[in-house]
Amino acid sequence: MREAGVQGEGARAIRRDAKSRRGFRFAAGCVGAWLVLNSGAALPAPGAPTEAVRSTLNEAIRILADEQLKKADRAQERRRLLEAVVGARFSYEEMAKRALARQWRKLSEQERREFVELFKTLLTNSYADKIEGYSGEQVVYLSERREGRYAEVRTKVVSEKLEIPLDYRLLLNAGTWRVYDVVVDGVSLVKNYRGQFARIIRTSSYADLVEKLRKKVRKQPEQTDSP
């Protein structure tokens, strides 16, 4: 009986650790998770893509550290400032286009604009509260890889219990490096949404997907990133 009890405790500990890892991956993979992390070891002689990620990170940390913006009556202002910083670096249109894949080519310009706005709101609403939930983690810059107009900045997020690979994929557009995907522990944010969207379109329709997104963005942010 004693042995069974120890095994039971061990199993519960494993489940707790797994749950903690999933939760950390969820928040780290969101559009704004990296904004609450402290800068860690720098990549020697970093290139423009790494500097793009770093500059956005530094500006976001400045906003998060501002004592005046921490006041309750300025919470919305704080969020707007953070969203502006993220929006300047992330290409929501490119992310939406890749998440929809072939369906994107079938849309009119008006439909594309609507979908991009819905997708942007989905991301910001889903992850806004997560931004405030982490402090003290470190970002370690590992490497940078470039192929023409594309680049990937590899990092890892280090906390007391976990080390999570967190990579940023960027596209050079009009002289600016913009993030079009985030890969957390090997899981692509865009690919994850692509699978969800494709499943809804396949089993129902694109119109149904849009309606689900409309309903989702009208709700209070929840603990899931599913549409």
> Within the largest sheet, what's the order of strands?
1-2-3-4-5-6
How far apart are the termini?
Answer: 45 Å
Helix % is 40-55%
- Alpha-beta content class: alpha+beta
What do the pLDDT scores average to? 80
Radius of gyration: 19 Å
Shape: globular
Strand proportion = 15-25%
What is the string of SSEs from the N terminus onward?
HEHHHHEEEEEHH
The number of helical segments is: 7
Low-confidence runs (pLDDT<50, min 5 residues)? Answer: 1-28, 30-45
Record field, number of beta strands:
6
Q: Biggest sheet, open or closed, and with what strands and sense? A: 6 strands, mixed
Topology:
Elements: H1 2-28, E1 38-39, H2 48-65, H3 75-89, H4 92-100, H5 109-131, E2 138-147, E3 150-158, E4 163-173, E5 176-184, E6 187-188, H6 189-203, H7 206-218
Parallel strand pairs: 1-2
Antiparallel strand pairs: 2-3, 3-4, 4-5, 5-6
Helix pairs in contact: 2-3, 4-5, 4-6, 5-7, 6-7
